[in-house]
Amino acid sequence: MNLKLLIFRARSRGVPVYCCLLLCVYLVLKYFYWRPLETESVPKHLRGYLKFAENFKFPRHKLRAAEIKRLSSLVELLNNEREVFQTRRYGAVRGDTTTLVVQVHRDAERLQTLIVSLAQVRYIHTVLVVFSHSYYDNRINKLVASITFCRYMQIFYPYSLQLYPNKFPGIDPEDCLSVQGKRDKYCSNRDGRLTEHKHHWWWKACFIFNNLDWSDNFKGTVIFLEEDNYVLPDLLYMLRYTTRTLSYLQGIHVMSFGRPYAKYLDYDLLSVLSWRPPFDNGLAFNKTIWQKIMSVSSYFCMYDDVSWSYSLLNAFGKLRAGRADVVATAAPRVLSTSMFPSGRAAVRQISAWLADAKLFPVNVKAVMLYGSSGRIDSGSKPPPWGNGGWSDMRDHLLCLDPLMSTTTANFNDLTATSDPLTSSTTADYLTIAHHRVNMSDAEIRHLL
Ligand SMILES: *[C@@H]1O[C@H](CO)[C@@H](O)[C@H](O)[C@H]1NC(C)=O
Ligand SMILES: *[C@@H]1O[C@H](CO)[C@@H](O)[C@H](O)[C@H]1NC(C)=O
């Protein structure tokens, strides 16, 4: 056969036909498959918050001395101003306003999915959301400034790695990290990139409870979140139940809304147990508890562990009760997105998980577990030594006085230890409280 003729035929008929076919297949796949995955889990009116692409990363970039100087004074100014936005719409912040504080570093892509989730929380218009940043960037600020669904404010950790790239509390010449190869010299075995998270956590708690205009007689609850969290719509709805359960209990107690996701959890159950990590996502407490923590702050600040939650466990251990009890939702209302490749991927998976979750339960039960020898979980002591990374005296001193003056790795322990609610079938439980919703929206608003 004539080769020339063959080529001619393919050109005139075959290739365009194949091309058209491929294009059709692509369009059909895109329409039926790709589009729903991308957007269905985020409601249309909230897609404007998705400003960062799925693979977005800030470039590693060290500021020059002059830029650092300018940024430091800007941060100082902003921390002094402490401006609350959207008060015209939602009213001034009061001494009993529930506050959500979000620790933000550089993961803007996950932060925007947290914001999308916050926007869907019922009663979110009654709270104040505080974003505490350890990385200053105009694109993050723009994202936060686009929030219209609640009151919000921004504070900035003034001892961040961004502002101290080459000296303590950043990576100091005396840190082994920066003198590698010259081991004969004394060096401190700390990593400023890891210590920043604990410092920031502590600084922002100090700032919220001691440094805001309404801090002096602050009666509200503070819920601690991180940029890689995702909250469920009934978070604040459940807060009422946990708050009410606290009033039935003696001693020190905190609330927790976060734990790793698992199937078949009871969305209408609260469990009372000794607090320990990994119940550190969505931890919540008020100023009374904060003052108790402050009274043992040295056990937080001098405990050799870069994780704030294990340090807090150590500090609670030094209180007279020897532990803090927690009222925790048996099913999480705060999830971590850190184990997913991106915030968007997390949203897709979480919406699938929650398709048949019974959120907004009408009957809620709070239980404490008892076995034949008393409380099941009374023995959760902190390890006598921390996991290390926090042995430098300079870190201790900065932590002890943080307001003289805030994420990198994620230390959330996702390997949940066995759940006493499911692992001990022989245990009896004592019902502490039984709640049923019959409050009007006005009453609820008052409680929040
Ligand atoms: C904090 O919560 C506890 C327990 O509900 C309560 O007894 C205490 O009065 C609260 N503190 C403040 C300052 O509101
Ligand atoms: C609901 O509210 C009414 C009064 O408004 C009260 O009598 C009742 O005990 C409340 N609780 C339940 C479970 O109905």
Structure description:
It is globular and about 95 Å long. It is built from 14 helices and 13 strands. By secondary structure, the protein is of the alpha/beta class. The longest helix has 37 residues, at 3-39. Strands 1, 2, 3, 4, 6, 7, 8, 9, 11, 12 and 13 form an 11-stranded mixed beta sheet that branches. The N and C termini lie far apart (84 Å). It has helices at 3-39, 65-81, 87-90, 108-119, 138-145, 192-210, 235-246, 287-295, 297-301, 308-317, 343-353, 393-400, 420-423, 441-447; strands at residues 99-104, 128-133, 151-156, 221-226, 229-231, 253-256, 269-274, 283-286, 325-329, 334-336, 363-371, 374-375, 428-436. It has a single domain (40-405, 407-447), classed as Spore Coat Polysaccharide Biosynthesis Protein SpsA, Chain A (Alpha-Beta Complex). 39% of the residues are buried. Helix 4 (108-119) links the parallel strand 1 (99-104) and strand 2 (128-133). Bound molecules: 2-acetamido-2-deoxy-beta-D-glucopyranose (NAG) (2 copies). Keywords: Disulfide bond, Glycoprotein, Glycosyltransferase, Golgi apparatus, Manganese, Membrane, Metal-binding, Signal-anchor, Transferase, Transmembrane, Transmembrane helix. Its EC number is 2.4.1.143. Disulfide bonds join 301-399. Mn(2+) binds at residue 228.
